[in-house]
Every structure is written in C-alpha cells, then in structure tokens.
Amino acid sequence: MNAKNQFKQKLSPRLCVSAVKKLFKTIIHFYPAIVFLLAISCNNPSGQLDIIPLEPTQNEKPAPGKPTQIIKLETTPESQLGYIDKTAFDTEYNRIFVLSDFTVFIFDNNGKFISKLKKGRGPGEVSMIIAFSLNKQKQLFYALDNSNRICVFDYSGKMQNDYQLDGFYGKDIQVIDDNNVFLLNIKVFDCEPYFAGIYNFEKKQIIQRFIPREESPYPELMMIVNNSFTSVNERKFFSTTNIFGLFEFKEGDFQKVISYDLGNRKVPESLIQKTMESGRRARFGEEAQKNNYVPYLLNSFYHKGHFWAIIDDEERSCYAISEKNRNKVYLRGPVSSYFNLPNVYSFGLPKEINQDYLVFAGHPTDFFDENTTSEKTTIEIGNQKLEIELGENPFLVVVE
Q1: Distance between CA atoms of 117 and 213, rounded to whole angstroms?
Q2: Segment (H or E) for 277
Q3: C-alpha to C-alpha distance for 132 and 66, rounded to whole angstroms
Q4: CATH superfamily of 83-215
Q5: Which of 36, 38, 241, 306 could be cross-linked to 223 through a Cys-Cys bond (beta carbons 3.0 to 4.6 Å apart)?
Q6: Spatial distance between the Cα atoms of 207 and 327, rounded to a whole number of angstroms
Q7: CA 201, CA 165: separation in Å to the nearest integer?
Q8: Alpha carbon of 4 to those of 8, 12, 95: distances in Å?
Q9: Strand partners, 85
C-alpha cells in the first residue's frame, strides 16, 4: 500500500470534521482583518495610507516657502487691534481684511487703515463677528455675526444684506459662489447632527448637510478657530478641531482624504465621559493636556503638495505629510519653524491659507521680555529687519 492510501485510511471522518471546524474558526477570527485589507486595496489602489500615525519618519525638512513680505498695520485709535484670528488679502482691489476683537478691520495693501464694521444693535451694525469670507468677484464679504446671522458687506464695510440662521449655528464660513456658502456648525447635537452644511441665499436655508457627528469622538466639545474651510486651485478642504482628519469636497460631498492617528496621545474614553458627566466641558482641553493627551486638531490643510496637521499640545506641533508618499511624515516643531519664522505664540497658526502663500500675524508683545523697560525693539524676519513698538498693531508676514 502506498503512502497516499495509508494516509486516507488513517484520516477518519471525525478528524475531517474537526479540521473543517478549526479552519472555519480561523477564517471567522481573521475575517474583519481580511475585509479591512480588501477595503483598503479597493478604495486606495495606489497603496497610499489613509490613516497616518503622527510620528516623524523623515529627518530632513520640506521647504514650502520663506518670508517674502512684511506689512505693518497702521495703528490709530480706531484701528487698535487685539489678537488677529484671520486675514484675507485681495491685492487686486487694494484690500486686506482682518478679523480681530470680534469685528472686521479693513486696510489697504500697504497696511493703511480704511474702516471697520460698526458694533452695536442698530441698522447696519454687528454684535460679534466670529468668521468671514471674501467673494472677490462681487467685491463683497460675508461675515458670521454671533453664529446665528450672515451679514453681507461691500469692500468699504457697508452692510448690504443679512440672513438669519435657524438652528444651524455657524462657526466658520466659506464662499462657494454668489448664491451659496459653506458653514461649520458650532452646535453638533442630536437636533442638528452634522458638522458642515451649504447655506443658499435664495432659499434662505441650509440645503445640504455633511459629516455626521459620529465622525468625532466628542462632537459636542469644540474649539473656536478659523480657516476650517480652505481652497487650493479648485480643490476645497475642510477640517474641524474635534475630528482628527482632513476632508475634501468631491462629487458633491465631503470625503475624508486622510486621518491622523495620535497613538497613546489620544484622549481615552474614560476622560471624555468624566468631562461630560461632571460638566467640565470648558476645561476639557486643559484636563487632557495635563495628562499628556492631545484634545484637539488646531488646524489641518493642504499646501504645496503636503497635508498639514497642527495639534493642540504644548508646542502646537505641526506635521507635514507628503501627498505623493504618505510614508514621509515630517515634524520640525510648530508651523512657524517650516518657514524660518520666530517661535512665538502668535505665529503658531496661519491666519490665511492660499494656493501659493500663507499669512502669519506677529503680535509685538511676543517679542518683549516681561521685565523690559524699552518700548521699541528690532527683530529679524527671514532676511529682513523690522523695528516694532510695544503698543503697535500686529504685523503681517507673507510666506511663499
């Protein structure tokens, strides 16, 4: 009898059934991993990673740009600025728009003050501007007033129209075209469980909603920052502070193009629950950082072939990920370090994000010691020397 027949005689039916059961259990055990790998290969045939661990893999640094222009904003009793939240340049029409102290200030290209929005409760006045966006074709800008009203202004700051928001409270705004804007929802609760929407001026309502609350580990906890919506060429991107990823508007919807993995710096579920149950939502970020966790994504955007992620740690660490090869993850420190800017707090976030350039705003107080008695100092930005005074307005730095 050959070896093959001997093997058949030894293999009883009971052993065959046992072997099949073991095989079946093995398949069931690894089924989720198999499906996950198949999904990655189908959805991402190029082999690009969708989930990027925020750990540097590269020693060298990308060279995305350097300071090319410094603009000192005129300081007058009417134009005294606090911390700058956002800027918007329209050099063709000689305008720089600046969001500070919950209103919009208007300067010319050289930083000379022109006007600002009037605060109050009368006709043509605003209460608290938290975001704005330009419509350069119409020479208009749209501003969110106190999260429940969209106000439309011309380039001199005169109100042209206003629209009340019902239920969908805006935190950020971005012009799409003459009739539509994107809005970021500030209150992502069960009654309005979406992060983004399109508001239509003709219908005077939200006509589409995007990104359900399930995308966030804590949708009801959020920071107020600007530049959630950014545009590069015809590409439109979106990020928000409590979703660790970047979305791109494709085929009529916001699709997540990259996710960021914090590893052991991710806020654990136990801390989230403790914060929600104890009513300490306002201190969530502080509690998380105290325990070496990262509570928020301060900003994420696309610029010059890289995805950028600025996280809410003590350093405001900024990661740059190559779009063509997502295995290349860079970390130099804060975003300012990539553009040879001083490492100061006011340079920790870009105030404007465009295809070819970024804008940063430097606050003079960041460059004076607490014990200094001098009212003036000279600093170096790139290859340029700049004299600043302690009581002056912040200055703008364009990097490209």
Answers
A1: 34
A2: helix 269-278
A3: 27
A4: TolB, C-terminal domain (2.120.10.30)
A5: 241
A6: 38
A7: 11
A8: 6, 14, 88
A9: none
Helix (H, G, I), strand (E, B), or coil: what is residue 93?
Answer: helix
Instruction: Name the residue with tokens 């399109």.
Output: 198
Per-residue confidence in pLDDT tens, the chain, 400 aa? 444 444 344 444 443 444 434 444 444 444 443 333 333 334 444 445 699 999 999 988 787 899 999 999 999 999 999 999 999 999 999 999 999 999 999 999 999 999 999 999 899 999 999 999 999 999 999 999 999 999 999 999 999 999 999 889 999 999 999 999 999 999 898 889 999 999 999 999 999 999 999 999 999 999 988 999 999 988 999 999 999 999 999 999 999 999 999 999 999 999 999 988 888 888 999 999 999 999 999 999 999 999 999 999 999 999 999 999 999 999 989 999 999 999 999 999 999 999 899 999 999 999 998 877 889 999 999 889 999 999 999 999 999 9
- Evaluate whether 344 touches 367 at the Cβ level (below 8 Å): yes
Bridge partner list, 215: none
DSSP state of 34: H
In what helix (H) or strand (E) does residue 307 lie, and over which residues does it extend? strand 306-311
- Count of beta carbons in the 10 Å neighbourhood of residue 54: 19
DSSP 3-state of 75 = coil
Q: Pairing state of beta strands 113-116 and 384-389?
A: unpaired
Distances (CA, A) of 160 to 80, 150, 179, 258: 25, 11, 14, 39
Q: Give the three-state DSSP class for 359.
A: strand
Phi, psi dihedrals of residue 65, rounded to the nearest 5°: 160, 175
Q: For residue 35, what pLDDT is reported? A: 37
* Separation between Cα atoms, residue 209 and residue 198, nearest integer Å: 7
Q: Which residues contact 316 (CB under 8 A, 6 or more apart)?
A: 298, 310, 334, 335, 348, 349
> Domains of the chain: which residue ranges?
1-43, 52-73+217-400, 83-215
Amino acid occupying residue 332: R
Residue 201: strand, helix, or coil: coil
Let me know if 10 is exposed, middle or buried by CB neighbors in 10 A (0-12, 13-18, 19+): exposed
